[in-house]
Write the structure tokens for this entry.
Amino acid sequence: MNDLWIGACPNEADYVFLLPNRPALPSPVDISFLEKPDVSLLIELNGNHWRKIFTIMAKLAAPTYDSWKVFRDKELLNKVGIAFSFDQLGDYRGLVFIVGNTFRDELPVVDSAQEVGDVHTSFVCLPYIWCPYLDYRQFPNILIEALREYILEKKC
């Protein structure tokens, strides 16, 4: 379980989210579920907290902002990978969201990182984005929209 990876594999993922906490998984855990997980089942097993996590991921990763809900329910984990330890990132060269403060000792925000947002902020030094925990109190829609705009502008 130390190498738990959920969703799109590193060579297929558009984005990877490095998260500090793991969701409860169906028992027994089936490798095919980890490769093609069902967002609705994970939300059912883990409740509103994980619904919020998946919603913020979808708002950041959806092809268009208006399509985030359908994207979350149908495509999110086909396009996004979720890792739970820094060493899982290996040779992944795409955009990595480093979520919360847990991994900042292993991968601190670099001085050259661009600050995005006003009251709530993220730091970007591609390919890394250091962002708040995926909860609306820390990561409100205004920051999601600012970060999406930055990502699209830089064509990440």
Notes: The radius of gyration is 15 Å. Helices lie at 31-35, 39-46, 48-61, 68-74, 76-79, 141-154. The longest strand covers residues 95-99. Residues 5-154 form one domain.
